[in-house]
Amino acid sequence: MFGWSTVVFHEYRVGDKLRYLEAEAFSMAHLEEPMLDDPPARRMLEFDVPIFVFQGRHDHQTEFDVTRAYFEALKAPHKEMVVFENAAHLVPFEQPEAFVRAMVDRVLPWALPGVNRDGG
User: Contact, 84 vs 94, CB < 8 A?
Assistant: First the structure.
């Protein structure tokens, strides 16, 4: 159960945890079957904005090879796949410093006009 991580994070209050688990159950009951029948990724292949994919190498929620294949099929003015070798599905919690560094170094320049995006 993916919601287990929410239960153990001490930052959430008991009410927050219960509402999250209720919302997760509702979503799975109403969205899982339609999304399996017609995955959005089949239709969402072309974008007019930069795309950044942050992927934990050991993620079994969104398998690495499936994510890589989807990333390769994407068309966008700029795209980057950032792989976190020592993380699974919850990269921001598993490798917070590396995640923040990737956001600052790779994504932030695309949000700021006039910033050099080549890293130099």
Answer: yes
Alpha-carbon distance of 65 to 71, in angstroms, equals 10
Three-class DSSP category at 118:
coil
Could you give the CA distance from residue 1 to residue 11 in angstroms, rounded to a whole number?
19
Structure tokens belonging to residue 112 = 């700021």
State pLDDT tens for residues 59-96. Answer: 988 899 999 999 999 999 999 999 999 999 999 999 99
Phi, psi torsion values for 112, nearest 5 degrees: -110, 120
Question: Is 0.85 topped by the overall pTM?
Answer: no
Read off φ and ψ for residue 83, nearest 5 degrees: -100, 130
Is the separation of the CB atoms in 86 and 95 below 8 Å? yes
